[in-house]
Write a structure and sequence with these properties.
Layout lengths: L5 H22 L21 H10 L5 H18 L10 H14 L5 H9 L11 H23 L7 E4 L2 E4 L2 H10 L3
Antiparallel strand pairs: 1-2
Helix pairs in contact: 1-2, 1-3, 1-6, 2-3, 3-4, 4-6, 5-6
């Protein structure tokens, strides 16, 4: 992301966060059948970052400040993607949206060490790293790292009971898998 500027940095950063959020949700879901269900495809229920954020929040996988940060990033990505003019993270409209998110993210123990690492980077062909882009890169890095770390610590949700046409019965791992596979035939 150090080589990206402006629109590219925002689009690439939010795409990385979106992928990490998808991994987080997949970590708590049972596996799709061999054919897959396409649940995360763009035209499907969880194809948008907004739907992923809402579900992650409702499942208790993210807290309020992270939910707000993800919604701010979603809005920022939309603003940059649909802007006809050149947009900058330093623009007042964007920097004011991000300032509260940065304040929350600065409480993360990785912010200061990562900030030091970024400050030590030699200038790119685009010149030195602007403070607005530096803070954006730090935010994206922390969100992706912690979403992925949380996903690694989770396992698929196994409900205690399963509803079937014969009624409600205690769930067994094999019956859930067999029914999911049978549904794809």
């Amino acid at each position: 992301m150090l080589e990206e500027r402006g629109r590219g940095a925002v689009l690439v950063g939010v795409a990385r966060v979106d992928a990490a959020l998808e991994h987080l949700l997949q970590a708590v879901m049972t596996s799709a059948s061999a054919k897959g269900d396409g649940l995360f495809l763009p035209d499907r229920p969880l194809g948008s970052i907004g739907a992923k954020v809402a579900l992650a929040n409702r499942l208790g996988l993210i807290d309020g400040p992270v939910e707000r940060a993800l919604h701010v990033l979603r809005k920022l990505r939309n603003a940059f993607a649909h802007s006809a003019e050149s947009a900058s993270l330093g623009d007042a409209a964007h920097s004011s949206r991000l300032e509260e998110v940065y304040a929350d993210a600065r409480s993360n123990p990785l912010w200061a060490p990562l900030e030091t690492v970024l400050a030590a980077q030699p200038p790119s062909a685009h010149g030195p790293l602007e403070p607005a882009l530096r803070d954006y890169i730090l935010l994206i890095t922390i969100l992706v790292a912690f979403l992925e770390a949380a996903a690694q610590q989770l396992s698929p949700f196994r409900p205690p009971v399963v509803m079937g046409f014969s009624g409600i019965a205690p769930a067994t791992h094999s019956s859930i898998s067999a029914e999911a596979a049978a549904g794809d035939r």
